Amino acid sequence: MTTPLFVSPVRLREPGLNALPPGIERYVVRGGGSLALELFAGDQLELVNPEGLQVAEVCAYGADGRSDPALLGATTANRGEGLRLLLARNASGAEALRNALERRNLSLDDARASRVFGKESPAGDSVRYTAEANLTCIVAAPGDDMSAHAQDTLTDLVVFVHRQAKDGAEKLTRLPDPLADPLEDTRIEARTAYAYEVRAGDYIQIIDVEGRECSDFQCFDSARLQQGVERCLDVTSTRHVVGTAYPAPGLYSKFYDQDFEAMVEVIQDTCGRHDAFGVACTAKYYDDMGYPGHVNCSDNFNQALDPFGVPARKGWMAINLFFNTGVDDANQMYFDEPWSRPGDYVLMRALKDMVCVSSACPCDIDAANGWNPTDIHLRIYPGKHTFNKATAIRMTADADKQMTRETGFHGRTSRLTRNFTEYAGYWLANSYTQYGALDEYWACRERAAVIDLSPLRKYEVTGPDAELLMQSCVTRDVRRLGAGQVVYTAMCYENGGMIDDGTVFRLGQDNFRWIGGSDDSGLWLREQAKALGLQAWVRNSTDQLHNLQVQGPNSRDILRKIIWTRPDQANVDELGWFRFSIARIGDEHGIPLVVSRTGYTGELGFEVFCHPKHAPEVWDAIWEAGREFELAPLGLEALDMLRIEAGLIFAGYEFSDQTDPFEAGIPFTVPLKTKQDDFIGKAALTSRKENPQRVLVGLELAGDELAANGDCVDIGRNQVGEITSAVRSPILRKNLALCRIQVEHSEVGTEVEVGKLDGKQKRLPAKVVAFPFYDPTKSRVRDVPPPE
User: Fold this and answer.
1) pLDDT tens figures, 371-429
2) Calpha distance 291→289 (Å, rounded)
3) Claim: this prediction has a pTM higher than 0.70
4) What letter does residue 169 receive in the DSSP assignment?
5) CB atoms within 10 A of CB 337
6) Helix or strand (DSSP H, E) at 442
7) Residues 451-497: pLDDT tens digits?
8) Nearest to 578 by CA among 506, 673, 517, 656
9) Which of 513, 485, 486, 517 is nearest to 501 (CA)?
10) Among residues 745, 722, 718, 601, which one has the least CA distance to residue 655?
């Protein structure tokens, strides 16, 4: 038997790159939004309803500007009621639709549209049309805003365009649409560099056209150049000022020169992985690697900058955009293929009149450009525009990016602070300018505080099999949950590893709302509904339902002043722990809400849910009602202190898919003795409970030096645990930490050491103590007198 000379290579999964075959394009129509695109005769339009139950409307316009469904082979039509509703609502999607119609000189006056899908459409339902002629197609995902107590959420649609093959047609790479009308729109060809001038205030957008391509960037102060002084972006000075490897959109977003003068500010970044340690590639690098004479970025920079009188260098310092580098535990720098995908970009704002230079890196001898140098695209926009600061988040590795958004309450919180951080795709406040984390903490413990936690993921789970789906996917017994009740639970994989923790709200017999920390749990629910063949829909309502937590001893007094409930709903005074009511602001005509007795602080507290369009009014009502109680805003820094004291866990710290609920410190969420029905992970959790390896415990440390997530916990030379979270407790006046430790060493009173520096040279004495540290009987959050 002979071995074949050629063996087909194993195909690698690269979800970050465009995996669609040539001639196929993919677009997303956001719920409540629309999409306009051009089709040519023979092109096919495929419309997919990923989450189900979302109505779609398709309108086709011919070259004469007239609307005719027959252009797509459709036989039924209406007057475009969904498109008209979208414009009438004047929501965020309305402006895009209005602009699309105006640019193409089209009108909805005589529009005839096809209504696709229905109120019973299953998840993944699809339909396909063929263009009978060249046409403009508008696809909409229409619908009304979801009320807080309803579940008719708007969800996204996906559009695939299958282009008719044309002989001799070249492959075209679709760039992202311009952010505005550009002053300059230039392609930087692979293996070249390009120098250009920008004015102070202008925006520079650098786009990775095909993905996995590095682009070095450098800029010079034009005024100093004219004086014969070279002052350019200095990555060492920048790291010193911002305290990070490189700036990112947010509070620490500027690059500086060697005189600590700000040069450019990063406004948007859809990749999030760059390099600010190495220089642009040099002739020396290629010489040393055995490729003498290889084209390189530094020489390309010299050539491009020569007309501006910039002296040549053998190696140029630069911010190496999209270059994927790091430093490992052995202090070795490494690099790998870039994280950037086709169309990823960095948007920067010039803070001075500048001469800039950008490259399309020529490296083809290693993984720096994925072994294949490609083009970079440059756009410059005038400074009269304003672009929101944002990074990109993806629900899964192959999902479309979504830029960081503002919650419905951002207009109010941003009046009180500029200190925001990106959290799960939204900007949330770290702390507030006139307060600070410590004052915010004490406000919650002694009076009341309000925090915006809108990024929590909400999923509407409905249908005849909704209860069975939830009972199969979470560890708590959902069948025991009555309408108006809430339960805190874990969600696990088959091996018992946690996907997420969260709360289940039961709105009716076949109506549930899942609120968790990540999209993984919502996607898992939808996958299991399909795998189990259940008639249940799982639809993302995060964008339709934003929420505040009002926490602290005075929280009930504040909400009592403004919350109205129907006679069949518990009022604020009657609302029990882990229960919710359908409510309104003021009276029966007020803003619709859901109010629950839940929270994340260990204090008496409530959560208030509303549609984002009502969020400013809801904030104002709560803020005004709270004045006499000295209500304070609460940021994430103070919240972390509160939740650690209360023994409340956080994803990525106390749990991951490598830990089970027992190891995460929430064994009460796995009622193996009383939940008779099977659920995903039950067998594994039964085995893990019988054979525990690790458990979450509290530690009290000697002295005031804080432990940190990841610090080792040792007995002698033996590591027995790891710190998950730590806090210097203001109210308990103790240095505390949460620690996952081997069960053999988990007994209260066990003495251990927390390793700092390299884990060995410096040890902090500590001992195992009971947790929760604060109010272990939960008397405050239950609002019952503590035991004698």
Assistant:
1) 999 999 999 999 999 999 999 988 777 788 899 999 999 999 999 999 999 999 999 99
2) 6
3) yes
4) P
5) 17
6) helix 437-446
7) 999 999 999 999 999 999 999 999 999 999 999 999 999 999 999 99
8) 506
9) 517
10) 722
